[in-house]
Amino acid sequence: MKEIYCKLLIIGAGPGGYVCAIRAGQLGIDTVIVEQARSGGTCLNVGCIPSKALIHAGDEFYKVRQMAAGRTPLGIRLQQPSLDLGETMAWKNGIVGRLNNGIAALLQKAKVKMLEGTAQFRDGKTVLVETETGAQIVRAENIVIATGSAPVELPDLPFGENVLSSAEVFSLNEVPESMAIVGGGYIGLELGTAFAKMGSRVTIVEATPQILPQYDADLVKPVAKRLGELDITVLTNAVARRYDATSSALVVSERDGKDITLDVDKVLVTVGRRPRTEGFGLEELGLDMAGRFIRIDERCRTSMRGVFAIGDITGEPMLAHRASAQGEMVADIIAGEKRMWDKRCIPTVCFTDPEIVSAGISPAEARAQGIEVAVGQFPFSASGRAMTTGDEAGFVRVVSRVDNHLILGIQAVGAGVSELSSTFSLAIEMGARLEDVAGTIHAHPTRGEAFQEASFKALGHGLHG
Ligand code: FAD
Ligand code: NAD
Fold first, then answer.
1. Which residues pair with 308 in a beta bridge?
2. Is there a contact between 305 and 285 (Cβ–Cβ < 8 Å)?
3. Are residues 21 and 137 in the same domain?
4. Using N-to-C axis directions, what is the helix angle for 15-26 and 85-109, rounded to 10°?
5. Is residue 14 part of a domain?
6. Angstrom distance (rounded) from CA 93 to CA 108
7. CA neighbours closer than 13 Å in the CB half-sphere of residue 454
8. Domain finish residue from 307, 334, 361
9. Burial class of residue 189 (count of CB atoms within 10 Å of its CB; 0-12, 13-18, 19+)
10. Which CATH number covers residue 34?
11. Based on the domain organization, do 293 and 251 belong to the same domain?
């Protein structure tokens, strides 16, 4: 059996692992990365990128359908449009392929050795990799576990045939006539909206009283309104029980104990993700766990010396940019830099229609921490830019301390607000106060002006509302 020695071995080439590998290579660390599927992990292959491609395709198709139906104030008229999902998926696969190749090129440039195969722990310094050309032992001074997460399967709705996970949905070649989505969180709402815009009759089945329970009701309201406009049925306080593929019947229990039956071609189950901690010998290391996740400290160190963990396997929020930021930091630490996790916020974006962004804490969270806050909120209905792009739903909200005006949180809901998320996190990371944002010239006409206006409002003197 072949043996390799290296200073750093990374298991998993998702946004956590591959970023860690590139940075480590740049720092001259002798690095090996092992990946059992395709580089880019969940995010690139069956997550962030494919979902945003489908959301874009849905938006475009919906727009031309509205125009064909004469439902546009712009005076544009079209003939009957159609969508070939096979072609849409081929376009999406092209994007994923380009990015897969891009990662491989970046790893090569950084002189990182890539091993294709499944890594199996022998001990805290040794891993066995089953590759196509045979088994290989890798001995490493440091190991980074970046094995990510997988979709949660419901015992009564096992994946297969017409019950899809968020991975299989990206291989559909036809738009299902009807679709039930079990779980009204991030994936359910992003993809549910996309499929409705592509022509599916969509029903969302959510167990809690509110869709997107991770966001406050004010942020979710414009999204819920839009779902109604798209004829998406939303069942809250509802749990899917079983699906019979022969009769296309999905039985759903509602809060009052009543069972209803939905007639749907496909069921997409999006009830969360579980960390990938099983099947590769991790249990034998006996690492300290934090619930289902690997416990880490502020340097992403696990309870075993020389073993680090990053990304979804380390807990919430399970987001690509958190995984990458941890990966970049860990490479520096292994190179001997004095780094620790000191981020003030991790922005979250939900790519619904309209989009939701949150950076830092909400007014309710601040109050729960006993902080007296000044809140400023500016609606897009008062924004010239929002009017000219034809979508005035939503607002930007700024949460600051009353005593020194330090900005603690910024939330927004509205068309295209995902692009404001970096501005929001930059403001929080730099310790901006209301006066800093109000005193920064914001270009006109842009949606970003709403951030400045919300800051003026929190200061008690809004200019345009
Ligand atoms: P992963 O990306 O899961 O990568 C882990 C890798 O490890 C995988 O490639 C896997 O094959 C490999 N692996 C596992 N075990 C082994 C082993 N034993 N040997 C070798 N290789 C192994 N996040 C966002 O920030 N923005 C979004 O818009 C967004 N959209 C999403 C949409 C969907 C539909 C889904 C499912 C997720 C989305 N996410 C999004 C979440 C994001 O994909 C994850 O947070 C991110 O991929 C986590 O990165 P990671 O590196 O921790 O793990
Ligand atoms: P989620 O946690 O966002 O939503 C799951 C939803 O399912 C919740 O609302 C929950 O109440 C509901 N639920 C749970 N069990 C249920 C049941 N039996 N019946 C009905 N509803 C049930 O999880 P997700 O949508 O699967 O996404 C997983 C993770 O992936 C997210 O938490 C996020 O970290 C990441 N993600 C991020 C983005 C983004 O950043 N834009 C997009 C997609 C996914």
1. 144, 301
2. no
3. yes
4. 30
5. yes
6. 22
7. 27
8. 334
9. buried
10. 3.50.50.60
11. no
Q: What is the 3-state secondary structure (H, E, C) of 120-174?
A: EEEECCEEEEEECCEEEEEEEEEEEECCCEEECCECCECCECCEECCCHHHHCCC
Tokens 């798209």, residue?
230
Q: Which residues contact 288 (CB under 8 A, 6 or more apart)?
A: 294, 295, 302, 303
Protein residues with CB under 6 Å of any ligand 1 atom: 11-17, 34-37, 41-43, 47-48, 51, 118-119, 146-149, 166, 187, 276, 280, 311-312, 318-321, 323, 351
Q: Ligand 1, from 22, 43, 358: best to mutate by most atoms within 8 Å of Cβ?
A: 43
pLDDT of residue 465: 81
Q: How far apart are CA 201 and CA 231, in angstroms?
A: 8
Measured from the Cα of 351, ligand 1's closest atom is 28
171 and 188 together in one domain: yes
Q: Are residues 189 and 290 in the same domain?
A: no
Please tell me the chain's helix, strand, coil percentages from 3-state DSSP, rounded to the nearest 5: 35, 30, 40
Give 123-172 pLDDT, tens digit per residue.
999 999 999 999 999 999 999 999 999 999 999 999 998 999 999 999 99
Q: Does 444 participate in catalysis according to the annotation? A: yes
Contact assessment for residue 163 and residue 199, using Cβ atoms and an 8 Å cutoff: no
Rounded Cα distance, 374 and 457, in Å: 9
In this structure, which amino acid lies at residue 299?
R
User: What's the pLDDT tens digit per position in 395-424?
Assistant: 999 999 999 999 999 999 999 999 999 999
d(CA 126, CA 113) in angstroms, rounded, equals: 16
Closest CA to 60 of 91, 35, 29: 91
Q: What is the pLDDT of residues 194-220, one digit of tens each?
A: 999 999 999 999 999 999 999 999 999
Tally the domains of the chain.
Answer: 3
Angle between helix 320-334 and helix 15-26 axes, rounded to 10 deg: 30
Ligand 2 atom closest to 48 (CA) = 42
What are residue 397's DSSP bridge partners? 377, 411
Based on its alpha-carbon atoms, the radius of gyration of the chain, rounded to whole angstroms, reads 24
The answer to the question of residue 158 being in a domain is no
Q: What mean pLDDT is reported for the chain?
A: 97
Q: Are 400 and 433 in contact (CB under 8 A)?
A: yes
